[in-house]
Amino acid sequence: MTSFLDAPSHAGDAAPAEQEFSFDAADFERVRKLIYQRAGISLHDGKRAMVYSRLSRRLRETGHRSFRDYLQWLESAAGPAGDKEWQEFVNCLTTNLTSFFREEHHFHALADVLRGFGNRAPRIWCNAASTGEEPYSIAMVLAEALGDHGARLLATDIDTKVLATAQRGVYPADSRGLSPERLKRHFMRGTGSNAGFIRVKPELARMIDFRPFNLMSTAWSLGEPFDMVFCRNVMIYFDHATQRRVLERIHGVMKPGGLLFVGHSENFTDARDLFLLQGKTIYKRV
How big is the CA angle at 164 (ends 176 and 242), to the nearest 5 degrees? Predict the structure, then answer.
């Protein structure tokens, strides 16, 4: 019998030396164009080996013998089957690097801000949920700061596979970033075949609404304006024009004075008409 009890206290991307599939410079440029159109991701020349490695899996799955044939088939794909393959294409080329309480200063800042909300539940959006560590970290801070006041968090990602992992809420027991106190309060530990894993407790999981979302979409129907948005280590994959477009849309779904949390290597001081720097990688919506 396997169960989870209260807790007590990607494969490499290098291309093979001899390529299995035909993949030339024109194929790479075609991939770059397609992923830019679909997801806003700007791939530089150094990503060619990564593209080959990741998309090779789709060629094997779909039975194509060259990238040229696969891409031609992809561009002509239509209907539900076409939508499914386009999603697989995007899933292959997104990067998902995350951990619990990554860039920890943001969570200290979040806890400080939440003290000013009293019993009011803030609206928060984490728009690069990945495998879930980030939104669950936000939810833990929400639970600790506000208790049971119906706080809800929207967590989205363009990659449907990582979202499925996030919704499952199961992680290695030695996952980085979790204190013994938080392990005990917010997780259950696995037994039997689940030994060595932890699962998010249902009360924490219920705080999060996971759903797929593409930041390149023109339909931003996300409900009431947000008090805070976490968009961390996403913009680094966009060119300047795409960054500006996404910032304008994020601005449009936030409350005046709302806070935008971004990644450590992201800087938007040239968008002062939208956001003003308030602290270390934290911006205030104008």
Answer: 85
